[in-house]
Amino acid sequence: MTLTRRELILTLLGAPALLASGCSESRRLPPAGELLGPALEIGHRLRDGFRPQPNADQWKDVAVVIVGGGVAGLSAAWRLKQSGCEDFVVLELEQQAGGTSRSGLCDLTPYPWGAHYLPVPLSHNRDLIRLLDEMGVVDSLADDGSPVIAEQFLCRDPDERVFVDGEWIEGLYPASGASDDDLAQLAAFRKEVDRWSAWRDAAGRRAFSIPIRQASEDAEVLKLDQISMAEWLRQQGWMSDRLHWLVDYSCRDDYGSTAEQTSAWAGVLYFAARLKEPGSDHQPLMTWPEGNGRIVKHLASQAGARLQTGIAVTQIRSRQSRQRVGADGNDSPISGETGCEVLAFDTASEQPIGWRAKSVIFAAPQFLAPRLIEAFAERTGRGVEAFEYGSWLVANVHLSRRPREAGFPLSWDNVIHESRSLGYVVATHQSGNDHGPTVLTWYHPLCDANAKAARQQLLQATWSDLADVVLTDLERPHPEIRELVTRLDVFRWGHAMIRTRPGFISSSQRRQAAQPDGPIHFANTDLSGIALFEEAFDHGLRAADEVLASLTTNS
Q1: Alpha-carbon separation of residue 464 from 25, 113, 398 (angstroms)
Q2: How many CA atoms lie within 13 A of 185 on its CB side?
Q3: To 5 degrees, how large is the angle CA 204–CA 205–CA 207?
Q4: How many CA atoms lie within 13 A of 98 on its CB side?
Q5: What string of DSSP letters covers 144-192?
Q6: pLDDT per residue over 371-400, tens digit each?
Q7: Which of 477, 520, 446, 493 minimizes the C-alpha distance to 13?
Q8: pTM for this prediction
Q9: Alpha-carbon span 75 to 541, nearest angstrom
């Protein structure tokens, strides 16, 4: 069903944006732009059963095939190489690796297409600190092992602001007009967060840690997973609209879901896991013009020619239960061999290709496992119904100059209080160039209760539809924005991130999903239930370590 402009704005931005935008169906659009997104056509062909079969001369032998070139897959490749295993290949469907951490580039600046910052890790996340050190980001280590980050990689001031009641104010909390009771509830909330940051279980583990594999599984902590973050706030007696907005914004920002939809476990983790100690500020943020695309670039460089883009995997099957294609084109038995066969095709040439591997790291989202892994459900008894994915709309808005505005100056992160979007970050902020042309990266998580319907609406919308939605939202703080836009590109992420619903973190389905299926090992951020860079990185390392152990055992 095609929506009118009015219906689309109401659906994506809500009634306040519709009221502010007026009733006209005709609005000025940018002179140039593209509608971008993952390779939907290829994905649909695979869904509909497209399975080209490689000929005998189109097979290759390799120790490890990594399916998926997002952060998890690239991290697995990094671990393998660092451990001395270089007999692997990374297969990525898209022409550019990185998944939701990929980036773009124009004559002025690089810019993100997804994840755009990384908090400085605490001392216990040694592997991530090692990666950052390898990238030249770490100046030194403090006495406790925590990294001292080179200043140029820390988000420069001013870092964040919020547009509320017609002007920009510093910070994210809408303090303008806050009552004594609002401020008292904010203080009580922070005190409770401090309590959780200090909490330790009998084994000395933090209640909330990133990566979450290092967090406590004590019943007192996991009890929070049974209710939503909004319900948890209500149970504490905190009813301040400003506090609820801040928490809701935080859940939408990190998890792509509202506080009503987000597990209280994940909601508290957002605030408590990145506190070095009770009463401290949250860990500072590292960022680059291209966001986490800078980290992706480094990881991809380590994989080198082993990273192959534009390769669509069509099937993964166990060699223990298969016949091998012989030189005559007929099947022949495999004697005593174990491992997997990975069938794929080159999306440019459409030529089929196959790999025989001792191990596979499946670094794609879980919902693809039954579609790509032969007899997955029958063999493992696992379902993927519990894995629900939210959609995101991201736009890069190229401006001829900075807009005029009132209040606190343009910052790296700019949030609109009465909006369903998350606002925008400024790609040129880290360069110190505060005047002239720039690129704004605008983010909008689709938090509809029916994730599938929201995804379908997003994928049916045209570039002009979505460009108008973006500019309608930005017009509220920047009335002249349409006059300044020289280009506007839109990226539709249909399965952007896992939804952290109540009950999912502690569910058996999530825990079982990380278990190997014979020679197939799993690595993706959805296995944590929260879509954070650190989780994708950690699962990539874990899966690689499992493979390294199996290769050693079988050698």
Answers
A1: 12, 19, 16
A2: 22
A3: 125
A4: 23
A5: TS-EEE-GGGBPPSS-EEEEETTEEEESSS--TT--HHHHHHHHHHHHH
A6: 999 999 999 999 999 999 999 999 999 999
A7: 446
A8: 0.94
A9: 6
